[in-house]
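Hi there,

I know you've been waiting on this one. I reran it after we fixed the sequence typo, so this is the corrected version. Both the input and the resulting structure follow.
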Amino acid sequence: MPKLVNFLPTCKTLAFGTVVALAGFGALHTSPAKGWGFVGHEYIGSTTYEYLTPAAQVWVDEHLQRIDETSLTTATTWADRVRGTEDGEGLGPLHYANVPPHATTFDMDRDCPQRRCVVGAAYDALDVIFDPAADEYEQADQLRKLSHWITDLHQPLHMGFAEDRGGNDVLVQFNGEEHNLHRVWDTLILQQKDLPEPAELAAAQPLAEHDTDWYQAIQEWATESNQLARKYAYADLEGGDELSDEYIASAREVIKQQLTASAQRMAQLINAAAAANQDRG
């Protein structure tokens, strides 16, 4: 099994090899697949909350009450829950992004024009939640959205190839049954999860102090996910392949590390946003 990098929330782009994604923004996949499924999103939301400072927990709770969300755990699924509804109209392209074949990193101007991708959606949320003068209801709504965009961003196939719609058009054999590759990474491997309880994880891997340019950090996380998709999700697969035990073991480790990285990074970001709003009149 390939040795994986231990993902600490340092915002440094990881060197997993050359990124050679297959298409630009104009051909982005329009899959209805849900990043991480509800299980993954909710696990990240629960773990993130465990990492928050007491003041940030209060800030989150007060904001989510304004929009009738019961917890950060469930708030992370909102953008998937509203698919096919009026509230979800126009959100489809905001769940993912792609990088063209000649590139080695995600580039905002090239890959996300007019912010119509998951990175741009996260940027829109940052603009609001870090602004103490912003309307509190709008802050709450953007906090809820950000919790989903950050989790989607860490699912490697949400930074996958446009031509196969992030693995949705790649059919593989998993445990003797045919599934698309996106579903394998979103849901099926998570069903076999051996993840620690959120409180246990937070206690075992304390959150490091972090002060950064969050906009730049999110771009680096996008590059990282794209590289993981290329190296571990797509690997050398061809349509119809049976996923080997080695492939599944590697995928499980990547998924576990991305779930952890997503929770830690989102907690650091929310802690910073709560602190930025602490003197609000």
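Quick highlight: The chain has one domain: 25-276.

Best,
R. S.
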